[in-house]
Design a protein that fits this description.
Blueprint (H helix, E strand, L loop, with lengths): L1 E3 L2 E4 L19 E2 L2 E2 L8 H14 L4 E4 L9 H13 L4 E5 L3 H4 L5 H8 L3 E5 L5 H8 L6 H14 L3 E7 L6 H11 L2 E5 L6 H9 L1
Parallel strand pairs: 2-5, 5-6, 6-7, 7-8, 8-9
Antiparallel strand pairs: 1-2, 3-4
Bound molecules: iron/sulfur cluster.
The site of iron/sulfur cluster (SF4) has 12 residues, from loops.
């Protein structure tokens, strides 16, 4: 758990179904001064206790399921914590790569999130075409780009406030991703790009 601005962020897992070329996990220990590599993944009671402690330290506008990792890898926990937040009238937001239904093909994930009371979802699209998506996000699943768009569409249909995002990395076509978001009826937000330190680039180049 860590804070940034008026938000409380939950780090439920370090696992992910993508390997984005700009992912901070490639070279950073965390964000906003928080170390995000987990010794083990937290359980429900630990997460809710951490949220309670966070709110004792000061008010927040929302609780966000985030990373280092893809939160829907732990869908059951996301749903349980979302319900816990809803009962306490705390706004919840899921920050996701949109692979929820690829990870859980037997679950209607947007419907389950809406039923649990999720207020908002921020879906990392990062590319306007499947080819670019495959090159930049390097997903483990085939046809992920279409699945991410469908996930966002279905979140919108279930009344979840939906925003598509793209990291402003070198070569990114933010205008094309923004146009895709608009066509879908979603919001759009560009995310800042954090370049790896020169040493990390050199080490990667050596491999
Ligand atoms: S989806 Fe997020 S956590 Fe996963 S590889 Fe991409 S940037 Fe990293």
């Amino acid at each position: 758990m860590y804070r940034a601005g008026r938000s409380v962020y939950l780090n439920l897992t370090n696992r992910c179904s993508s390997a984005c070329e700009f992912c901070l996990r490639e070279w950073a220990e965390g964000v906003y001064g928080a170390e995000l590599w987990l010794d083990r993944e937290p359980e429900l009671e630990e997460v809710t206790q951490a949220i309670e402690l966070a709110f004792l330290e000061g008010p927040a506008d929302e609780v966000v399921f985030c990373g280092f990792g893809e939160p829907t890898m732990r869908l059951d926990l996301v749903l349980a914590v979302t319900e816990w937040l809803r009962l306490r009238r705390i706004r919840s937001r899921l920050d996701t790569n949109g692979h929820g239904e690829l990870l859980h093909p037997d679950v209607d994930v947007p419907a389950a999130l809406a039923a649990a009371g999720l207020d908002a979802v921020t879906v990392s699209l990062n590319a306007a075409t499947p080819e670019e998506y495959g090159r930049v996000c390097r997903p483990v699943f085939a046809k992920s780009h279409r699945a991410v768009l469908r996930f966002a569409e279905r979140c919108i249909a279930h009344g979840i406030e939906t925003t598509l995002t793209a990291v402003d990395h070198p070569g990114a076509d933010l205008a094309a991703v923004a146009a895709t978001a608009t066509a879908l009826g979603a919001g759009f937000r560009a995310r800042g790009y954090a370049a790896p330190p020169a040493r990390a680039v050199a080490e990667k180049g050596d491999r």
